[in-house]
Amino acid sequence: MMFKISKYLIFFFFAGMGCISGHRENLQTSIIQGDTLQTNLFNKLVDLTGHSIPENRLSDSLSFMIIPIDASCNYCRDKSVDSLNTALDEMNNHHFAIITGNGMKAIKAYFSGDKRNMPVKDGQVFVDFENKAYLNDLVFLHPTFYYSFNKRVYVKVKTVPITIHDDLRRFFVN
Q1: Cβ atoms < 10 Å from Cβ of 71
Q2: What is the CATH number of the domain that holds 89?
Q3: Which long-range contacts (CB under 8 A, 24 or more apart) does 122-125 make?
Q4: Mind telling me which PROSITE patterns this protein's record contains (predicted)?
Q5: Is the Cβ–Cβ distance between 62 and 43 less than 8 Å?
Q6: Tens digit of pLDDT for each residue in 92-127?
Q7: What are the tens digits of pLDDT across the range 145-163?
Q8: Cα–Cα distance between 5 and 9 in angstroms, integer?
Q9: Strand, helix or coil at 59?
């Protein structure tokens, strides 16, 4: 009797972890509900771009990636920066990346210390050296993706090491 119960507990544990299906779903994905919240998040994201997104594209399907440099999961931050540098030339004009940190000195120190290139693409890659993304509760410790349509944010994905590759693929492909 005890063996059967243990067997079922193990099955449910692995099923809950996604091991049975082989599918790694990001449990940090949030569906944003409420018109006011959706619009407020969108306005905060547009503010981080310096309101440089052309008006005729604001209602389109847009994707935003925010990479925190200072206080961040090192693995996720490094993978995000490396992927951004790799995909920079092919980056869809409806995708935007925001590199955020507590001052330009801290951001430059990361890139010079790790000998990584600072991603640069006019109108698509922005540097938030005032840490507005953190101050506006858009990012905390992990790169975060936002997906919007018609000037509203509908999905937020906070990446974790086990899902970073899938999250980045989703951002660059969609």
Answers
A1: 14
A2: 3.40.30
A3: 123/52, 123/53, 123/93, 124/91, 124/93, 124/95, 124/96, 124/97, 125/84, 125/88, 125/96, 125/97, 125/98, 125/99
A4: PROKAR_LIPOPROTEIN
A5: no
A6: 899 999 999 999 999 999 998 877 889 999 999 999
A7: 999 999 999 999 999 999 9
A8: 6
A9: coil
